[in-house]
Design a protein that fits this description.
The chain is mainly α. It folds into two domains: 31 residues; 142 residues, no CATH class. 68% of the residues lie in helices and 3% in strands. Keywords: Membrane, Transmembrane, Transmembrane helix.
Amino acid sequence: MKNLSTIEKLDKLSSEVPELMQRIIDLWSKEVLFTWRWWFGFVLTILTWLFWYKTHKKESRYRLLTAGFFVMVVSVSFDSIGVQLGFWSYRFEVLPLIPAYLPYDVALMPVVVMSLIQFKPNSSPYLKGILFGLLTAYIGEPIIVWLKIYKPIIWHFYYSIPIYFTIFLIAHWLTTRKYFTELS
């Protein structure tokens, strides 16, 4: 690759991705799909959203979903970046094409944040954010490590606390904008 131009080097590296992805998909379809860990993630995703649907304040639905959508986008993005940089890995993804654990990023994270926002809406968002960061980093992450779904490589649980805290605060801020009706 020494005598190749930058474009040729990038093209060569990019051309290796489909082969690697095909190997991952083959392994996933033979050894991950429909295992108990796969079903765990699939059912967790559905049950989490059913819980939210049954318990959320209907009059605040769009306000909360705005926060939830923000949390999903940020969580999937950060998770994908972390996997691609080798900070951590996932072994039993529900979908193999996205390098993130979707049950965590598109169900647990947004639903927990939305639930915290609507629970005691006049409580300190900073206190809720700290609580969210600590519980997610020191209970949520260790559980998925224990289940052998998540493997931190060069990541420590406590690195996640300020990230979770910031995600919560921004999500909370989004729900307090004046273009929504007030939470009661």
